[in-house]
Specification:
196 residues, binds uracil, alpha/beta, 46% helix
Length: 196
């Protein structure tokens, strides 16, 4: 089963390697297709690669990624075993600017293919850009985080803060972004553990 996913995902990755659907293909060093492991339980969708991700071709390997690993580890999730990680964009926007609508549209087919192949039971939407790609709302991430939404293929989706936001907000006090993230990831673990 795992091999069937891997083969299909590899086909999509090969397409991304050749992709020139938007101008980011001219400035990328590497495409950043996915990290973690293909699995049917847990997927995290971030925004777009930054400098370090572009250099290495792996999502969430910079400071924000290191914090993400710590957050996952707090509840016993490991990137090497439990989670598939990808982004709304596979190429880095210059100077880490927000993805443009045409870039998101050009890349959407790849993201949809990743979701369709894996059909994960839980999808974590990490930050505003990922949330806006799946939930049609004017509400900000602060109002949406920690809530469950119906996702594609009967999945449950939860918006969570982006770790780079947490890096800018250091407090761990009750009600702070870090504290809220801790509540959210514990809830994700609880629901994950209830799944067969
Ligand atoms: N931020 C993201 O949203 N994705 C990455 O891969 C790295 C930083």
């Amino acid at each position: 089963m795992q091999d069937a996913f891997s083969e299909k995902l590899e086909q999509v990755r090969q397409e991304c390697l050749r992709c020139d659907r938007c101008s980011l293909c001219k400035t990328r060093t590497n495409i950043v297709f996915s990290g973690g492991v293909p699995n049917q339980k847990l997927m995290l969708i971030g925004e777009a690669p930054g400098y370090y991700e572009d250099q290495r071709g792996i999502p969430f390997v910079g400071k924000a990624g290191q914090l993400l690993d710590k957050i996952l580890d707090c509840v016993g999730f490991s990137r090497d075993r439990d989670i598939y990680i990808c982004n709304t964009l596979k190429c880095r926007p210059p100077e880490n600017r927000d993805p443009l609508p045409e870039e998101k549209a050009a890349c959407r087919e790849y993201l949809d293919a990743q979701v369709e192949i894996l059909k994960p039971r839980i999808i974590l939407l990490c930050g505003r850009v990922a949330v806006n790609s799946f939930i049609d709302t004017k509400l900000g991430i602060t109002k949406l985080r920690g809530k469950w939404f119906e996702g594609p293929y009967y999945s449950k989706m939860m918006p969570i803060f982006h770790p780079s936001y947490l890096l800018r907000n250091d407090s761990r006090e009750k009600g702070s972004p870090k504290w809220l993230m801790w509540q959210d990831i514990k809830e994700v673990r609880r629901v994950y553990d209830q799944m067969d």
